[in-house]
Known about the structure:
Blueprint: H1 2-10, E1 11-17, H2 20-30, E2 39-45, E3 56-60, H3 61-66, E4 71-73, E5 79-81, E6 87-89, E7 97-100, H4 107-114, E8 119-122, E9 128-130, H5 132-137, E10 145-147, H6 149-153, E11 161-169, H7 176-192, H8 194-204, H9 210-220, H10 223-226, H11 230-245
Parallel strand pairs: 1-2, 1-3, 7-8
Antiparallel strand pairs: 3-11, 4-11, 5-11, 6-9, 6-10
Amino acid sequence: IIIKTIFIMRCMDIRYPDIAEYRFILDALCGNIFPSFPRFRCEAVASLSEGLEADVSFVPAPLAVAKSESHLILSSGSIFSYFSGPIIVAPREEYTELYVPRDDFYSVFFARVFMPGISIKEGDDYPSLLEPRLAILRSPFPYPKIDLYSSWASVASNLPIPIYCGIIRKEMEEAKRIAEDAIRASVKYALNNSDLLIKEIAHIHDVKNVDLLKRVVLNFVNKNTLSMAQEEVEAIQALKRAMDEKHVVLDDLSPI
């Protein structure tokens, strides 16, 4: 146990979805620029099928809730949507299946919880379902869009939608506070160096409109990414209640 604890304090593995927000949040931490914290070995995954299991993982919020028996949710590093939900872009009002882009890690889980009768496929075709950040980055669209915030508001009125959460394996509970503090320091660094970091991320993700990317990233990475306030905690509790009431079981990373 002593040897394991010493190893944890020296090095932790992190996996995260390869989206601009988490490259921004974790840049300093994954670059190991903080000598007062353990070293972190980071890996960005391009698809949920690659898996997100590590000492610390950043996962879609419904999956974080589903893993509560084996993992603890971290107080820092989460992403919430305060103004809109996922959107549907469709040429007609009726649909039985929706396409989710490969770089959208969240929407398929939203659909599992709030749209159980809809078939979900991976791809860039229409009608499509997109998480809030992609809804901004990819606009304008060729078809009308429908904001699904009302689906969330029906179970959690006036609360933000949990999009992504950081989780840590329960057997590493002793390192939870250290991980949270390291993530918090990394977020502060990112916010203080946002112009440079976002230009680098735009290059990595081949985003031409750097100003738009900056607006999106700073919309979702904010003071509540540093540390969840009571409103965010209540939102996660509301998500858990909704999943329990609907008997939602998320037993894998890729429910498509």
